[in-house]
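Justification of resources, computational component.

The compute hours requested in this renewal are based largely on the per-chain cost of generating structure records like the one below. Each record pairs the submitted sequence with a full structure-token output. That output is archived, and it is also reused by downstream analysis tasks.
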Amino acid sequence: MLTEPTPDELVHWHKFFTIECNNEAWQLAENIAARERKRELLDLAHASVYHWDKVGTELNRIRGYELLAFVHAICGHPSTALEYISEVHQYFISNTTEEWEYALVHMIRSHAAFAAGDSELHRESYSTAESIVNSMPPGEDKDVILKMWTAVPRPS
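The structure output for this chain reads:
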């Protein structure tokens, strides 16, 4: 028989599942071969945001929307990708943002714009992301961004 978890147990499990789903979704999104597993990508990203909504901070939720924007762009859902990344972009331009995070926002925004056929926003966001990435010092943050950069179509 299944027993009702205590409030502390429930918080623990929400955190556990959001971290697991979030990490696996980013890993799949970064892996070009795994991007064909679109339903799994979408399920993981949405599950992560669901659990962040239960136990996370506003920043956790915004980063979850960032993941959703990236996954929706990869999966060919441009309107929802743009909707999510617009909220993320607004949040990060209104708050103090680390360089890697701002580069990621513009990278995903570029991808969403490409998926939507908005060549001007695609070019503008790609250029901004590229400029930020090129100015970043070598290190783990830059390596993560460069790894994901392979998913973003280059403007023509």
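The chain has a mean pLDDT of 93. Helices lie at 7-30, 38-55, 58-74, 78-94, 99-116, 119-135, 140-149.
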